[in-house]
Amino acid sequence: MHADQRKKLINELTDLIRGGNAHVTLDEALAGIPAHLRTVIPDNLPYSIWQLMEHIRIAQKDIVDFSISKDYKTLIWPDEYWPEPTDSVSDQQWEESVKEINDDQQRFFRLLQNENKDLFSPLPWGSGQNIVREAMLIADHNSYHLAEIVVARRLLGIWK
Hints:
mainly alpha
């Protein structure tokens, strides 16, 4: 792959992960959610906005950790991927979760930009996964759950 092709691919994958093309961004999905509604589970949905956001954080961190290190520790599905319901979430907990989502995306973007990494070679500690696949997995997973946050917001009457 030529350097200019690699750069274009990295830019496309980065934009895909950030969102905003065919789906809302994390910032858009979370903007203006009243604190008292973060943990409310809307009728006929299984999760609150907080649980969805935490699931995004946990799953994305898992994917990034797997992509970066052979010392990756597998999480137990579904117990370690989904937080339990809670009655309240502090502003500090909320902000720390959003920050970690953004920080882990930055960690992944640095991996993508590392010219010493082959984006298509299978990760030696995996079962055929490569960095491009993991980038698409992050984007796909996050967009799916961001859409669920939008649905929850609509049901709570707090979407545009």
